[in-house]
Amino acid sequence: MTEPHSKADGQGGPVPEQDSAKEAGVRVRLGQVRFVLVTTTHPGNIGASARAMKAMGIRQLVLVTPRHFPDPEAVALASGADDVLDSAHVVSTLAEALLGTTMAYALSARRRELSHRALGLREAAAEAIGLCEAAPVEAISGGPSGPIAFVFGTEMSGLSNDELIACQALVHIPVDPRFSSLNLSQAVQLVAYELRLEAGGVQLPSTEPQVLARHEEVERLCEHLEETLLASGFLDPNAPRRLMERFRRLFVRARLEHEEVNILRGVLTSMRKWAEGNPKVRAPARPHG
User: Fold this and answer.
1) Angle, to 10 degrees, between the axis of helix 121-132 and the axis of helix 184-198?
2) Is 13 inside a domain boundary?
3) What is the b/e burial string over 186-197, where b = at least 16 CB atoms within 10 angstroms of the residue's CB?
4) Are 63 and 193 in a shared domain?
5) Beta strands 169-172 and 117-120: pairing type?
6) Are strands 103-107 and 89-91 parallel, antiparallel or unpaired?
7) Rounded to an integer, what distance in angstroms lies between the CA atom of residue 128 and that of residue 125?
8) Whether 26 contacts 52, CB under 8 Å
9) 14, 143, 218, 287: most buried, per Cβ within 10 A?
């Protein structure tokens, strides 16, 4: 079994649970979504799909006549999303998988001669999350809850026309038309990602607030820089060519922090000491008179 990488932040430490009110709302909305995998042939795809779902906050997985499940390969590729596999519902027909839903979106890469609405993935995600704002649907006979379903077909041929007809809309993932083949778990990941974005799950890592340098600190830095450039011979006072003006604009764009100003001035002090041992100071030309 592979290590549960999804439990780490990539730096070797655990990822803290997000318990903010905003995240709680995201969980409520995504809790109304179920993913339905129809006749999956490779158990690894089930495990990888479970991992993709859990990473985006979607937990309801329904499997219609999977070829191999449960299976050790599914557990290995779930990589920490074992709970999604353990709670997955295995049913015999798509009709069972869709019990209690009010809207089912069928993923299809091919054009079909059907009267169904055809939506892009982002449009479908927006519509689905809008529908999820309704009150939660209770579980039916111990089955999955949630009124919204996204239905994925078998790896080789996708969904049949009969399976598509059981859904209310077709969803297309915008891929390169010259190569539109996506692995099942990749498609699951893309759909789950768009749903999470639409549900409001954009959370940037928190960082310590940085103290920006004050105006007078930047001015002293500019003075220090000008003195050092003169001492090194880089700046010709007779032909400055607006050099210091350009440095000031650079510092404004950079929005220097207090600590960064200190570092730069330390560098300049070191350079000045070197320049004093190797003087190339250009004195401004005296006016003739």
Assistant:
1) 50
2) no
3) bbbbbbbbbbbe
4) yes
5) parallel
6) unpaired
7) 5
8) no
9) 218
Q: For residue 2, tell me if it sits in a domain.
A: no
Domain count, the chain: 2
Cα gap 172→125, rounded to integer Å: 11
Segment 24-64, tens digit of pLDDT = 889 989 999 999 999 999 999 999 999 999 999 999 999 99
In a domain, 31, yes or no: yes
Three-state DSSP state, 105: strand
Asked whether residue 110 falls in the same domain as residue 230, the answer is no
**In this structure, are 163 and 227 located in the same domain?**
no
Q: Are residues 186 and 251 both part of a single domain?
A: no
Q: How far is CA 28 from its chain centroid?
A: 19
CA dist., res. 257 & res. 34, Å (int): 47
Average confidence (pLDDT) over 257-263 = 94
**E runs forming strands in the chain:** 33-38, 60-64, 89-91, 103-107, 117-120, 148-152, 169-172
> What kind and span of H or E run contains 98?
none
Does 86 share its domain with 123?
A: yes
Instruction: Say whether both 118 and 225 belong to one domain.
Output: no
Q: Looking at residue 232, which CATH number applies to its domain? A: 1.10.8.590
243-257 average pLDDT score: 92
Taking a C-beta distance cutoff of 8 angstroms, is the pair 9, 184 a contact? no
**AA identity, residue 28:** V
Domain co-membership, 164 together with 82:
yes
Angle at alpha carbon of residue 33, lines to 75 and 150, rounded to 5°: 80
Q: Are residues 102 and 180 in the same domain?
A: yes
Question: What is the pTM for the complete model shown?
Answer: 0.71
pLDDT for 270-285, tens place per residue?
888 887 777 665 555 5
Q: Which structural domain range is residue 230 located in?
A: 215-277
Give how far the C-alpha of residue 126 lies from the chain's centroid of Cα atoms, to the nearest Å. 17
